[in-house]
């Protein structure tokens, strides 16, 4: 079968033929992949960014961690699923032995591995996954929405960490898929205003308009910073960074109201400067967001199930797996919001 893989510890990915998985091991299921999204993490792996060198020992490996599909076969001991069941898969696998895992917080595992990084992922027709990390898809949920569950968990978690409530003014930095999801979840949480900030992100602003948002600042404009300060007026209650741009931290802190909350839901590719005086004088809080717990998955699935039309515009491109390298290009150029690959389309 075809698979999109990281083959060697250097920049680049490749589409190549690999053997299809055998019958699943004990406690695992074999999933026929229906839809899988290309993530910013996949682009970093393609670039062979410093933060991903630890996966070198797993290479070559099939990428892809934002996916859903249909159970094709079940391994010994699996009773929760049967062939034909539709599932989304949590890609971060706990070791089951460390203190967080033993305490029931497997998302905080000290020795976790990841589907699509340390073991074969969803950029292929079939992938094996632990049954304990599969979640049944609600009846009627489309495959495209199923592939949005994993990225939406970040927005769900960021909004909860930021304690967004009815009437809040929220700004989101980064109009890509994570930022789009965060904006949508903030609106569903009752935010009275959601303002999205980008940098030369016209196509992604267009996606947000289709989602019903109409308040944007492009920091690439000559008056971008001044426009943002004007829109902020007395300050936002909550800011969420989904951009990965280190410079955003000080900008975000500067447009918060006193005691506001800034949630960092992205991973800058180099060290970020922090103006501590902005933090101290504003009496603001800086909070990190990573490793979505089970409740964030439940929140994301519920939001997608109840509001499919809100999230549908996020998927701007559907491609066959054979077109995966073009999908990477579309994501990297930011022409796309979310590119979904269909490994079993043919």
UniProtKB/TrEMBL annotation:
Source organism superkingdom: Bacteria
Cofactor(s), names only, from the UniProt record: Zn(2+)
The record's annotation in InterPro entries points to:
ADH-like_C (IPR013149), ADH-like_N (IPR013154), ADH_Zn_CS (IPR002328), ER (IPR020843), GroES-like_sf (IPR011032), NAD(P)-bd_dom_sf (IPR036291), Zn_alcohol_dh (IPR050129)
Q: What is this protein called?
A: L-threonine 3-dehydrogenase
Boundaries of every Enoyl reductase (ER) domain copy = 12-341
GO molecular function annotations of the record: L-threonine 3-dehydrogenase activity; zinc ion binding
Instruction: Print the keywords alphabetically.
Output: Metal-binding, Oxidoreductase, Zinc
């Amino acid at each position: 079968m075809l698979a999109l893989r990281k083959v060697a510890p250097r920049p680049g990915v490749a589409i190549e033929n690999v053997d299809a998985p055998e019958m699943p091991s004990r406690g695992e299921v074999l999933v026929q992949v229906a839809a899988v999204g290309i993530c910013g993490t996949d682009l970093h792996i393609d670039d062979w960014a410093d933060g991903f060198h630890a996966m070198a020992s797993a290479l070559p490996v099939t990428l892809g961690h934002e996916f859903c599909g249909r159970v094709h076969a079940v391994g010994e001991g699996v009773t929760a699923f049967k062939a034909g069941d539709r599932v989304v898969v949590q890609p971060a696998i706990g070791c089951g032995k460390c203190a967080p895992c033993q305490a029931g917080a497997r998302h905080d595992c000290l020795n976790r591995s990841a589907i699509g990084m340390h073991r074969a992922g969803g950029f292929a027709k079939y992938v094996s996954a632990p049954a304990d990390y599969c979640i049944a898809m609600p009846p009627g949920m489309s495959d495209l929405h199923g592939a949005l569950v994993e990225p939406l968990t970040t927005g769900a978690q960021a909004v909860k960490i930021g304690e967004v409530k009815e009437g809040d003014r929220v700004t989101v930095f980064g109009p890509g898929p994570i930022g789009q999801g965060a904006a949508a979840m903030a609106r569903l949480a009752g935010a009275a205003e959601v303002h999205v900030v980008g940098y030369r992100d016209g196509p992604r602003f267009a996606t947000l308009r289709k989602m019903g948002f109409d308040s944007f600042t492009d920091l690439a404009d000559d008056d971008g910073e001044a426009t943002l300060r004007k829109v902020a007026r007395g300050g936002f209650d909550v800011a969420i960074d989904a951009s990965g741009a280190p410079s955003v931290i000080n900008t975000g802190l500067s447009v918060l109201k006193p005691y506001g909350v800034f949630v960092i839901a992205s991973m800058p590719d180099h060290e970020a400067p922090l103006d501590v005086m902005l933090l101290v004088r504003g009496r603001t809080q800086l909070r990190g967001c990573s490793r979505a717990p089970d409740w964030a998955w439940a929140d994301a699935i519920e939001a997608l199930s109840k509001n499919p039309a809100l999230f549908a515009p996020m998927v701007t491109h559907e491609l066959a797996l054979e077109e995966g390298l073009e999908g990477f290009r579309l994501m990297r150029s930011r022409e796309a919001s979310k590119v979904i690959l269909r490994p079993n389309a043919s």
